[in-house]
């Protein structure tokens, strides 16, 4: 186990703080409002550099979800890449740090090019305003060919009473990642042994997670995030509400892949806002 340096940003008036670990995939490890922790974090996986972190807010880039056999082939190129890509495991460089914001950057190098042969520069801007934490991402194609990619976020919310929790959605179609079946939406039972539901036509670009005490967590994202995933495991105190731009295996199928021309930049955001029971 190792010690991991953290950067903490805060809004004192709202008594809101967030901690970020640039060296562990720029993961947000904690988001607290008035002393209340909103994120789940498995400390053992966080402090073991050989493990993928279970908890916090992992960044899924350049390929959310799992590739078939952890491999992709596109436009005459092919490589292997682990689930959710390398954005969540690479060290991000620290740029500007202010009391309520921090800017981090990730650029392509030999290790990323071996998995994903497109040069890029990603810049992540994290800010706290009131009880909202916002992650704004800028991704630039620094190469000379069109760059295909996907982006997602995987926030683990701390939910100890799943019977009293619920998620609001207008989805009518879902892909059940456990049975690999696409079907009409049947609702979300957070008390099931495992939930891994991909909501295919959720439209509002926001998804509230209502908690047992009457408070809620609002997850919002820019318009490119049209694929929303809900995941939880029985016996674990988390519920994940995940906005993705494309489904798993998109580098193979092309389904909703984003594409950047040389020199082009893609801007997006995801935010988390806490609303107390008193509103």
Automatic annotation (TrEMBL):
GO molecular function, one term: isomerase activity
GO annotation, biological process: carbohydrate metabolic process
Protein name: Galactose mutarotase-like enzyme
PANTHER family with a match to the protein in the record: APOSPORY-ASSOCIATED PROTEIN C-RELATED (PTHR11122), GLUCOSE-6-PHOSPHATE 1-EPIMERASE (PTHR11122:SF13)
Lineage: Bacteria, Pseudomonadati, Pseudomonadota, Gammaproteobacteria, Steroidobacterales
Signal peptide (residue range): none
Species of provenance: Povalibacter uvarum
